[in-house]
Write a sequence for this structure.
């Protein structure tokens, strides 16, 4: 489930960065339309890969329940970090994406 958590947090952060206001707050620059599309596609791709990783470990019933729990936990973490530590939120997303291959090897 660690892999799903890391991918969910990265996906939600990418979706967050695809919005004008959050992108300006977090990265302190203007969002181009190409970057918006790239962040949006990356976010949804990471969320779908996290679903796949959650279902690969267990069966459908338990995998979906665990995936929804991981979705809520990662979204809660991002929502709590955004107003108080926005730079930490972006740094954690980078760390989670760098640590996800390690978690993938540990999972299988």
């Amino acid at each position: 489930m660690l892999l799903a958590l890391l991918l969910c947090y990265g996906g939600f952060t990418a979706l967050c960065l695809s919005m004008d206001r959050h992108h300006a707050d977090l990265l302190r620059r203007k969002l181009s339309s190409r970057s918006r599309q790239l962040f949006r596609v990356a976010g949804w791709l990471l969320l779908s890969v996290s679903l796949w990783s959650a279902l690969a470990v267990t069966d459908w019933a338990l995998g979906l329940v665990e995936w929804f729990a991981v979705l809520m936990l990662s979204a809660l973490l991002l929502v709590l970090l955004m107003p108080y530590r926005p730079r930490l939120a972006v740094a954690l997303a980078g760390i989670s994406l760098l640590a996800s291959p390690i978690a993938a090897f540990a999972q299988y």
